[in-house]
Amino acid sequence: MILLFTVIWSVAATALPGTYFCTTKGTTLRYERYDCNSGKHWWTQTTRIDDIKYEDDGSRSIKFTANIKSDKVQAPVKGDVSSTAIIRPDGTVEVNITEAVSIAAGQRLSAFNFKATGGMSSMKSTVKPGDKLDEIHGAVNWKGIKYTLDYTDRSVLRRETITVPAGTFDCIVVKEHKVESAPFYKRDRITLSWYALDYGVIKHDSFFPDGRQECSEQLYEIR
Question: Of 109, 89, 114, 112, which Cα lies nearest the Cα of 99?
Fold first, then answer.
């Protein structure tokens, strides 16, 4: 679900430092995810930048709305999920992943009062190949029933220029080990994500632990 909460990027104001997040109000990014074995379309994800607030310390609070729709599989969200990203004065982007997961869970089980803890993700605008990124650990709880989300072994592998349907982008490539756990459920994946300054995630590939590729999601449109 990682893309639901991190993929919302476009061109930022030139007077401000670059950041791995969209900072243009009104921009919508459209992503398409496909199964790498069958070639079948999984879902369409859109993210819209709703509002930008400038804080006294020079940070920017970005209000955004994400949605995932699919005719083939059950999408991880039932409707729009609204979240906030913080862009620090140096361009560092911060997003709380588990808060968005809690909102999505509440859409399907509205009678339950879910509580999110941890899950803060951050990325500096100055990251470079060889850098190690902070781990992310979060949880969503309801009366002792816990869903956990852990991103470990996070590192910047290389710089790479890639072309996707939305265009050609100069990117850094980030590798992560992502594990989701809940009662009777566990999902263990290795992911590669391509990030472009002032756009954010351009492409996201997911692999099984044995190296087989599961799916790929790419940026198809910026409008």
Answer: 114
Q: Can you read off the two tokens belonging to residue 15?
A: 């007077």
C-alpha distance from residue 10 to each of 45, 83, 183 (Å): 15, 17, 38
**Token pair of 213, please?**
């590729």
Split into its structural domains, the chain has a count of 1
Q: Beta-carbon neighbour count of residue 215 at 10 Å?
A: 17
Per-residue pLDDT of the chain (223 residues; tens, 9 = 90+): 444 444 433 333 334 679 999 999 999 999 999 999 999 999 999 999 999 999 999 999 999 999 989 876 666 667 788 899 999 999 999 999 888 777 766 666 665 677 888 999 999 999 999 999 999 999 998 877 889 999 999 999 999 999 999 999 999 999 999 999 988 889 999 999 999 988 899 999 999 999 999 999 999 999 9
> What CATH number has the domain bearing residue 77?
2.40.360.20
Gap between the Cα atoms of 47 and 3, Å rounded: 10
Q: Which residues contact 97 (CB under 8 A, 6 or more apart)?
A: 1, 2, 5, 6, 119, 120, 121, 136, 138, 149
- Spatial contact of 186 and 180, defined as CB atoms under 8 Å apart: yes
- Structural domain boundaries, residue 124: 2-222
Q: What is the C-alpha separation between 23 and 9, in angstroms, rounded?
A: 7
| Dihedral angle of Cα 141, 31, 170, 164, to the nearest 10 degrees | 150
